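Our preliminary data section would be incomplete without showing what the modeling component actually yields. Below, a chain of 145 amino acids is followed by its predicted structure, encoded as tokens that our downstream tools consume directly.
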Amino acid sequence: MNTKSTKGNSLYVLIAAIITVIALTIICHDTANANNGMDYYAYAESLDLIEIIDSPDLTMEMLEARNGKLIIERAVGVVTDIETGDGYLIGYPEFYISYEQLVSENENVQNGNVVCSYIVYNPDNNYCDDIIMRFDYLIDAKSET
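Predicted structure:
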């Protein structure tokens, strides 16, 4: 048996073990210190994982190239017909939006009410019509005169 070769391999294993322990010590120390005084809101924003976009600014290209990013569309509109749930976006009457579910669940909705909707697109694909959630908030209950 070649003892020189065995001693050389043992030396490499010892050096590798020392480097591993030092690296783990540095990583654990940095991780522990990262939690102290960290601005988690700024960090979360820097990850660029979520984007809220107003309806008029949202394009098909943005939806078809989201690649894992969570896109939330913010739509502010007006109820125009409580019988059908029809509505349009403020400033963009050509942009149709349906409030049918809001109207069916809330008897206080009237024509002329302002609604803020948050539409959440599925981040797992790039289909422009894959909506996983929608939240409608009645923000102005004044009726149309």
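The beta strands are 50-54, 70-81, 86-89, 92-98, 114-121, 131-140. Residues 3-38 form one domain. Preliminary results of this kind motivate Aim 1 of the renewal.
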